[in-house]
Amino acid sequence: MSRYNLECIVLKSLNYKDTDKIYTLFSKSKGKITAKANGIRKISSKRAGNMDTLNHVSIAINESASGFKTISEVKGLNSFRNLKKSLEKSAKGYYLSELIHKFSEEGHENSDLYILLLSSLENLNSSQDSYAVVVRFEVLLMKYLGYEMYLDKCAYCRRPFSQDWSDIKFNYAL
Question: If you ran DSSP here, which 8-state letter would residue 20 be given?
Fold first, then answer.
């Protein structure tokens, strides 16, 4: 049985049995991981407040020989309170976490995506222009996943755009 510490962002949670939850976490060194927290739904649980969705936490994980992960310790690093006070900002934060959840594979390290998600949540927490934060996140997410857009040349023939082109068209399929 191995034990390690991680700095993660909580992407989502799922109730399991009477007092447990299964969490999907995104870390810098391990990527997306799924781990169970025993007894976290009990009234007397001290870890429950730190494990809210979109929280930035430091956790200790015990991993069995079969690969089953259990959360043993939790320390909250940032709960992004301003983000969660606003319905618009919290909806956009959940949207960012859902994009990471859908576009990343379990156990695949991607430190660029982790830094992007953490900085975007910090910007949403402090910024007034949440739309710009989301658009920046979407464009950089596609770049890090290998779907970068070309805005300086034609995606079909690779000719650079110039002033003599009468109309420039955007083809999303290319």
Answer: E
Residue 33 burial (CB count, 10 A): 19
Q: Which two tokens stand for residue 118?
A: 């953490």
Q: pTM for this one?
A: 0.83
CA distances (Å), origin 53, targets 5, 19, 57, 148 = 19, 18, 10, 29
Q: Which of 143, 112, 119 is nearest to 133 (CA)?
A: 119
For residue 67, give the nearest of 30, 19, 41, 101 by alpha carbon: 30
Q: What digits encode the pLDDT tens for the residues 94-127?
A: 999 999 999 998 888 889 999 999 999 999 999 8
| Helix, strand and coil in the chain, % to nearest 5 | 35, 30, 40
